[in-house]
Design brief:
The complex is a heterodimer of chains A (about 375) and B (about 210).
Chain A lengths: L9 H5 L5 H13 L1 H17 L11 H17 L8 H24 L4 E8 L3 E2 L2 E2 L3 E5 L3 E3 L5 E6 L3 E5 L4 E7 L4 E14 L6 E4 L4 E13 L5 E14 L2 E6 L2 E6 L3 E2 L3 E2 L4 H12 L5 H13 L5 H8 L4 H14 L8 H5 L3 H10 L6 H7 L8
Parallel strand pairs in A: 9-10
Antiparallel strand pairs in A: 1-4, 1-6, 2-3, 2-5, 5-8, 6-7, 7-9, 8-9, 9-11, 10-11, 11-12, 12-13, 12-14, 14-15, 14-16
Helix pairs in contact in A: 2-3, 6-7, 7-9, 8-9
Chain B lengths: L2 H24 L3 H23 L2 H18 L9 H24 L12 H13 L4 H6 L3 H11 L2 H13 L3 H8 L3 H18 L5
Classes of the chains: A alpha+beta (about 375), B mainly alpha (about 210).
Chain lengths: ~375, ~210
């Protein structure tokens, strides 16, 4: 008989995974040890439950979706190999391409590229591989990188300035009169823009921050998640048709593959903020999402109508009705905004309700691209 | 032939047929890949669905697995079992998805002074799940199999995947260990914990 308990071997015993001798010893021990016997009964019950799992049939359209992906991939892979040629022709072609490439690069490098002024604030920021002195020029396509003890300021053409905080990496993407664009792949920046809306953009790994005349900070972590914190004015987050408006004193997270989350005012309770984060990342139809939504609604203040209004476009069916009812309690809709109109996502109705939130007119948004942020997946 | 011989013969036929399919796939035969897909799609889908509890994510995982299979089948070594290789792809895709989901929930980066760790976040989610939902009421409305699915979905990822491989695929401990890249002892331990958690979560069904 085993002197020591056999509880760690019970599943293996149940599944016949122990050798004959060891299996016999466990059986003997179970006869004499009530504690292990009770545990064995528990494991056997758990196993009987697990045994009820049954295989599911995969959706029939899975193959067509997969075949399309394979086709795309193969097309991309074959593209450079189209029209297979003998080795010598290929080498000659490659040499010609190289010569053309070198020529194009030479011409490109001799052309003056637009550049923005950079001022060192502290430490030793770098543009490409070169350390920035007191001032420098950031050309289109170049990277400005700060280590953990350096900061720099970028003059955004004639429309504003951006401070790059330590441990950041930012690239100048475009410097046209009507499009000023940076890419922030890591770290933190503070932007102060005095141009009309939609002239300054910041690309992050999971969304584009579109300036609507404002001051804000934008952080991107090593996983590509971004946090927008608006100090004055408005910023819109956009990604693949998903949009969020973020006013002063509000924040918004953007996540890889999910895009912009739902914005919230930064004085909302922790419980509200946590539930909103869970709602944003949970799959549609799950209990976690529904429970998170219920918490958000229960904890919402009048001021959180901003969040609830965005949730109207991020919910469907019964969930949208829950949001409608709570938002209507906090900010009663105008008479012409009926539950039916909201339930079918009527843009005009939502737009009218927005006006009642007293966050500013939706006129600018309507002019820009229509009244309502796009619905989410 | 005896029944046992017939079974062995059928298994050998099946194996050689799969080998031929794999060989054809290695040469880019799309029809052969389709056959391979049809043979294994339900097992990959079932594991992904029960692991994630969500159709859309399971669809993504299943496609990722087969896309990976398609692009790397040339690297498949015949000395390793094809099924084991496939299970490894599924396990990795599921656990990667889990890690990705956890990253989305990590707000620490944005909260100076917030010392919650991932377990705290999980507990918060758990609390939220329980809010206002008495278990009796919940289980009165759903079938036992759904209750089992839900309980499995709440297991920790590595326990969950061990349970799925054992009960969907009836793999031995050695095969599960190969698929999960761990020892047989670890598999035994994970299944032990998985069984106990299921028993405790669904004790009212006894």
């Amino acid at each position: 008989m085993f002197r020591s308990h056999v509880n760690k071997k019970l599943s293996a015993y149940l599944h016949g995974e122990l050798g004959g001798e060891e299996s016999n010893r466990v059986a003997d021990h179970l006869l004499d040890c009530r504690r292990c016997r009770e545990e064995y009964e528990e494991i056997r019950f758990g196993a009987s439950l697990a045994a009820q799992l049954s295989r599911e049939q995969a959706p029939v359209e899975l193959w067509s979706e997969l075949a399309a992906k394979i086709e795309n991939r193969e097309t991309a892979r074959r593209r450079p190999l189209l029209a297979p040629t003998p080795l010598k022709i290929a080498l000659a072609g490659a040499a010609m391409m190289l010569a053309i490439g070198i020529g194009a690069f030479w011409l490109y490098s001799r052309q003056p590229r637009p550049a923005w002024d950079v001022t060192r604030i502290e430490g030793q920021p770098r543009i490409g591989s070169k350390a920035v002195g007191d001032t420098g020029k950031l050309k289109v396509g170049e990277w400005l990188v700060t280590d953990d003890s350096s900061r720099a300021e970028i003059r955004v053409g004639e429309i504003g300035q951006v401070q790059i905080e330590p441990s950041s990496r930012v690239r100048l993407v475009e410097a046209k009169a009507d499009e000023h664009r940076l890419a922030l792949t890591r770290g933190k920046m503070q932007a102060f823009i005095w141009a009309p809306p939609r002239q300054f953009y910041v690309d992050t790994p999971s969304a584009v921050a579109v300036d609507l005349g404002c001051a804000y900070t934008l952080e991107v972590d090593e996983n590509g998640q971004g946090l927008l914190n608006v100090i004055a004015g408005w910023v819109a987050f956009e990604w693949q048709g998903r949009e969020s408006f973020v006013p002063a004193m509000a924040m918004c997270i953007t996540r890889p593959q999910l895009g912009p989350g739902t914005p919230w005012f930064n004085d909302a309770s922790d419980e509200f903020q946590n539930a909103l984060a869970i709602f944003d990342v949970s799959q549609v139809g799950t209990d976690a999402r529904l429970n998170a939504l219920q918490t958000v609604l229960a904890k919402a203040r009048k001021r959180d109508a901003l969040t609830l209004w965005h949730l109207l476009a991020r919910t469907e069916g019964d969930d949208r009705l829950l949001v409608y009812n709570r938002l209507a309690e906090l900010i009663p809709p105008p008479p012409q905004v009926t539950p039916e109109a909201v339930m079918r996502g009527d843009r005009g109705a939502l737009d009218l309700w927005w006006e009642k939130l007293e966050l500013g007119s939706a006129e600018w948004w309507r002019i820009w691209k229509g009244p309502v942020p796009s619905q989410t997946k | 032939m005896t029944g046992a011989m017939l079974e062995r013969h059928a298994a050998m036929n099946e194996q050689s047929s799969e080998e031929r399919l794999i060989e054809a796939c290695r040469h880019g035969d799309r029809d052969a890949f389709r056959q391979l897909f049809e043979t294994h799609k339900d097992r990959v889908w079932s594991i992904a669905l029960r692991f994630t509890g969500d159709d859309a994510t399971a669809r993504d995982i299943t496609q990722q697995v087969f896309l990976k299979l398609f692009t790397t089948i040339g690297q498949f070594r015949r000395d390793a079992g094809f099924a084991t290789w496939l299970y490894r792809l599924v396990v990795n895709a599921c656990l990667d998805e889990q890690r990705r989901q956890r990253r989305f929930l990590s707000l620490d980066f944005f909260r100076a002074g917030d010392s919650r760790d991932e377990d705290d976040v999980e507990m918060e989610i758990e609390d939220l799940k329980q809010t206002g939902r008495p278990q009796e009421e919940m289980f009165s409305r759903i079938e036992i199999s759904q209750a089992v699915n839900a309980a499995v979905a709440e297991l920790k990822p590595k326990l969950r995947i061990a349970i799925l491989l054992k009960y969907f695929e009836e793999l031995s401990y050695e095969e599960i260990a190969e698929a999960m890249g761990c020892s047989m002892g670890t598999v035994a331990s994970r299944l032990n914990r998985g069984h106990k958690e299921l028993a405790r979560k669904l004790a009212h069904l006894k």
